[in-house]
Amino acid sequence: MNQTTLETALSDLSLGEIRYFDAIGSTNDYAARWAGEGAPDRSLVVADEQTAGRGRGARHWFTPPGSALAMSLILRPALPEEGGQITRVAGLGALGVCGALQQSYRLPAEIKWPNDVLVRGRKVAGVLAEASWVGNRLSAVILGIGINVAPNSIPQDDWVGYHDRPFPATCVEAAAGEPVARLALLRVVLAELLDWLPRLSSPEFIRAWSERLAFRGDWVQVVASKTESLEGRIVNLNGDGSLRVELRSGESKSLQVGEIHLRPIDRSPK
Ligand code: BT5
Question: Domain spanning 219-266: which CATH class is it, in words?
């Protein structure tokens, strides 16, 4: 992968500028800076390796060279920040990855709300949507996506970020059982995203996202912080992309994207 092969592979997509790096700290950090300097809408940052890849909060995202996809798409919102825009962009990223995995490899990809893509219960990709502000005006939303492609991209037990890894991980090659060309996969993911982008507020987008929800109808533990968690059953998505859960009391609660983690509750007989 290099600047030329990347530009050639993506030449039929309506993107802004494209910048490729052999190694970078975090593509999201670079994209936020570039957005502040006036990067055109739909500009893309891609790196072969990230040395400081980020998940939500203070978590790390593992991106060794030659085996993963790490990208950030700069989206210039047409509207000022309205409720749920960041949430929907995170959903857009997850839905784009799911669509591409289904279309290219017939993989049954699911979304662990809000931002993980799972295949058969293992995490294959993560999405990090972040707002970039100029003063109090939302200037861009940065859509970061990391996909494990080859086995090397799966974090091992001795990796620094392992201690808080709540989910077993996999990669596209292991799940599909065949070699995967990173650029071809990247192209399909971006084509899917760009296809949904104009319809982010439409009921069909919410429906498509909803249909991909992992653990729908299941009881999950919703972890909001170290000291705060509750149990609920996943009902559905609301129109703004927030997650509707039903609590044990029967009360319905809507969860917004933030520091929320879902953990399935295993109720199978031991
Ligand atoms: C995420 O956060 O899953 C969002 C990851 C977004 C990464 C992309 S790559 C391009 C762009 N630039 C960035 O700097 N970031 C974005 P979260 O739900 O907080 O999950 C993070 C947790 O996933 C970590 O604490 C680990 O437990 C685990 N993890 C880290 N790397 C992983 C990997 N490669 N595969 C599977 N799990 C991983």
Answer: mainly beta
